[in-house]
């Protein structure tokens, strides 16, 4: 009988200890409610900023994928009036978007998000898509001159002048529509590239000479997509700026219009930025 009592006491002790271990592990694991709350947590707004010789419609496929994944998306109509003007415009728009934001800049749009983001406290990440990422005091024209690449042909730019309402003369720059595809969108279907050439938006010439006043990549985590077949910004320059920014770099065999030809890759990089900063 004493053995039975001892055995009973031992079983009771073991059972109590096992229950304590289970309770401890359960307390460490997130509850179903907590998991549901995390899954239901709103994702940041992804703000897409196009560059020169493009418009917001270039983000259509990327935006559709992001919206399907639960992101709120804003594709900005970048004015292309110059870095100072476009920065102020973007900052005004961003102040009206509540909650966390991921800023995505293509080409010249990268310079705009770099210059604008430091004034917006809830920007979680910067994503550069075949984009400029200047340092404070740098101009885009200066970067292009300091980092030449003989393998990249000169852009087929066309300039035209117009008279502003105050009587002064403005200069705009666009790409020769006949050479647009080779320079900007070589891996985009021909019909799409032709429409892009016809609808391209010119950029004010002064945009290439205005120095950046801020370099947001110094304080905000950054991701960069380098287009290895880019004929608008040399891939070597894209790579240099991305490494300098300590960005997480992805490379893709793409023309400059990577958001049109590879929207899945662009969306994947944006998702990586989201997962790393949520």
Automatic annotation (TrEMBL):
GO molecular function: hydrolase activity
Occurrences of domain AB hydrolase-1 (ranges): 46-266
Pfam families: Abhydrolase_6 (PF12697)
N-terminal signal peptide: 1-34
Origin: domain of life: Bacteria
Keywords: Hydrolase, Signal
Gene3D superfamilies per record: alpha/beta hydrolase
Name of the protein in its database record: Alpha/beta hydrolase
Organism classification: Bacteria, Bacillati, Actinomycetota, Actinomycetes, Kitasatosporales
